[in-house]
Design a protein that fits this description.
The protein is mainly alpha-helical and 251 residues long. The chain has a two-stranded antiparallel ribbon with strand order 1-2. A hairpin with a 3-residue loop joins β1 and β2. α2 packs across α3 and α8 crosses α10. The longest helix is centred in the last third of the chain and has 32 residues. 24% of the residues are buried.
Amino acid sequence: MKKFQSHEHVINVLIRQIFSRQIKPGDKLPSERQLASDMHVDRASVRIALKHLELMNVLTIRQGDGVYVRDYMKGASIDFLRMLFLQTEKTDSEWLADPYILDEIWEFWVFFLPDIFNLAARRFTPRDIKNMLDIFDEELANLDDKARLVELELQSQELVAEVGNNIVVILITNTCRPLRRKMIELFYASLTDEQIKNHIETKKNLLRSFITSSEPDSSIFTAKYREILNGHRGALRKQIFRDEDKDAGSL
């Protein structure tokens, strides 16, 4: 687990509180002195953290007045979510695994990932295809190693973004890496080994059917891939909301 610097600790605490609405839009934060005392850091670290959060459009610093919380849904960038997901490597963190935000992230990737593949499919070289198939084969060889499967899935997504050669797609893909990692971890956790194997083989067969077609149609490829992702999203929704109901029932 990464050891955070003092200002990162302050950022993390405030992001959690803002995300969970413990402190709400319009709320005024305590003074720098009070925040430093509460979080056991120096005031310089608090000042740096507040400036970072202001740049993320999460806070408004009013000189001579104080620091106010903004509505992150109206002004924050995706860096807000990136920071939220970077804070822990634990997959069972209660605040991190909020089922509603995870479902929205999955919804975004169902919309976005197939179009990345669509863009890349027009530019695949034989070497790119071999590299992708090699990743799928390595996944099949590591079915008992979930951590390795997560890394390989991330690698395949990033290869596709790279082949697409669109700077916006590449930078969004990079920025969303912690979100993608969390999504993939939960996805694999929801499947049996046999289901994971079937998923990987489906990806492999889908790519092979595209490259062996006499007239490859990237739109058909994209539609089939989106259909697969939607099926996985449905299965994942059942798991995360079932887990939430189970937690609620234990209270």
